[in-house]
Amino acid sequence: MSHDLSRLGWDDSLASAYRRFDRPDAAPARVLRADRGFCTVLGDAGVLRASLSGSVLLGAAGDPVNLPCAGDWVVTRRWPDRRVTLEVVLPRRTALIRRTSDKDSTGQLLAANMDTIAVVEPIHPEPDDARIERLLALAWESGAKPLLVLSKSDTAADPDAIARQVAELAPGVPVVAVSVRGTPGVERLRSYVEGGRTLALLGRSGAGKSTLVNALAGAAVMPVQAIRDADGKGRHTTAYRNLVPLAGGGAVLDTPGIRGVGLLDTAEGLDRAFADIAELAAHCRFGDCHHGAEPGCAVAAALANGSLAPRRLASWRKLRHEVEIETARRRARQAAAAGHRRRRG
């Protein structure tokens, strides 16, 4: 069964990147799902199972982020014995990467080549402000456009009022309250996949991501499980990244439910997520202001007059400290690797 890849976002820019790899036994495809050593891909000829070539595995030896992931555009090769291998990962336009929990603080690629990242946060029992801020920083850093989705809006008496309140945590980010039970929110999400675009969903387990995927697809393509009414927490977690092509064009990408999200070197994403504080800091008298007792501190003035909440500043300080630590670790790793190369040379 043939498939028109332009419905998934294939365009002239991607075709240009693919051109130097083109040969009679090669074809472009998009990764629907990545497993250990294999990927399920969708190409012109339909859905295929492709094993990873030696060159792809070698390229990821130093950094697992280089392994193919759901959303990647790739080059596949068909062999005489009908095997299919994934030979090249084409350059990514956007990449959603979180820090792993190991001591080396390496990155884990969650999704690639999405146009919009929807941070999905359930209204019930109540939105978690700190989690929203952290996920928005991660989304901004990816290079995609963030969107804040308040799911399960049918559980709130006035979801629009909650959306207006939460919008203060997301300067410059659209906020949409949705429910799959008859509100127009899901239809508003369809605009983010028109024209072959990709919408990625990011949030904790039980936030309703898989339910939203099914609503957008018009079919049960992702498994879901009922949540506990008492605390709103879900037992089901999607354990893999899955790109779901939609019948009307475009795609939605469901990421695993995550309990914690570590930030890597995401200073730019943090500034975008806390644009209100960044704007205040730009008006401080001193460029190296620590926003404490320094004279002429615009941030301290905003705290004093109530236009900046203490919790918001504390959250920014915590995340900035985390990013500074990870930046220092990255630089130390790079220096150690450069020293190792010099000794070997």
Automatic annotation (TrEMBL):
Keyword Metal-binding: yes
Cofactor binding description: Binds 1 zinc ion per subunit.
Principal EC category: hydrolase
Intracellular or extracellular location(s): Cytoplasm
CDD domains on file: YjeQ_EngC (cd01854)
Keywords: Cytoplasm, GTP-binding, Hydrolase, Metal-binding, Nucleotide-binding, Ribosome biogenesis, RNA-binding, rRNA-binding, Zinc
Binding positions (GTP): S151, K152, S153, D154, G203, R204, S205, G206, A207, G208, K209, S210, T211
InterPro entries recorded: AAA+_ATPase, P-loop_NTPase, Ribosome_biogen_GTPase_RsgA, RsgA_GTPase_dom
This enzyme's EC code(s): 3.6.1.-
Main location: cytoplasm
Gene3D superfamilies reported for this sequence: P-loop containing nucleotide triphosphate hydrolases, Probable gtpase engc, domain 3
Sequence ranges assigned to domain EngC GTPase in this UniProt record: 112-259
Database matches in PROSITE patterns: ENGC_GTPASE
Amino-acid positions noted as binding Zn(2+) in the UniProt annotation, renumbered to this chain: C284, C289, H291, C297
Cofactor: Zn(2+)
Family: Belongs to the TRAFAC class YlqF/YawG GTPase family. RsgA subfamily.
Subunit text: Monomer. Associates with 30S ribosomal subunit, binds 16S rRNA.
Function according to Swiss-Prot or TrEMBL: One of several proteins that assist in the late maturation steps of the functional core of the 30S ribosomal subunit. Helps release RbfA from mature subunits. May play a role in the assembly of ribosomal proteins into the subunit. Circularly permuted GTPase that catalyzes slow GTP hydrolysis, GTPase activity is stimulated by the 30S ribosomal subunit.
Protein name: Small ribosomal subunit biogenesis GTPase RsgA
Organism, scientific name: Paractinoplanes rhizophilus
